[in-house]
Amino acid sequence: MDDKTALKLSNAGMRLIAQTTILNSGDTRRLHDFIANNYAPKALEQQAVGERVESAQEAFAQTGKLKIFQVLATDKHRVIVIMQAQANDAMYYTEIAVEEDFPHKVLAYIQRAM
User: Fold this and answer.
1) What is the pLDDT of residues 42-69, one digit of tens each?
2) Residue 33 class from Cβ within 10 Å (0-12 exposed, 13-18 middle, 19+ buried)?
3) Which residues lie closer than 8 Å to 96 by C-beta, 6 or more apart?
4) 11-25 and 28-38 are packed helices; what angle lies between their axes, rounded to 10 degrees?
5) Pairing of strands 106-113, 91-98
6) What does the pLDDT look like over 6-49, one tens digit per residue?
7) Domains along the sequence of the chain with CATH
8) Neighbours of 22 (CB within 10 A)
9) Distance (Å, rounded) from C-alpha 79 to C-alpha 93?
């Protein structure tokens, strides 16, 4: 199975695709709305919507658009990928986990430079 198909078959993969698309658009309002509506309350207690948006904006300023370079692991509720930055070709370990129950809200989103 190719990487794109593996992500589309995963609830976490679909959230990753959606969030990455919004991040790459640079549309802060859409990102704010996505996080507010698609992150679990538990995740937002750890880091509020505004803080997450600000952090994403700072990262975007350094990396430019991100693309999925390689899928390392997938299951229905967790995905681990390597992302590559457009601005400098840097690589980023990225992991997303979602709730098991519908609507599969994001529990964790982790991104670290490699």
Assistant:
1) 999 999 999 999 999 999 999 999 999 9
2) middle
3) 12, 15, 16, 19, 78, 79, 106, 108, 109, 110
4) 160
5) antiparallel
6) 999 999 999 999 999 999 999 999 999 999 999 999 999 999 99
7) 3-113 (3.10.450.280)
8) 20
9) 11
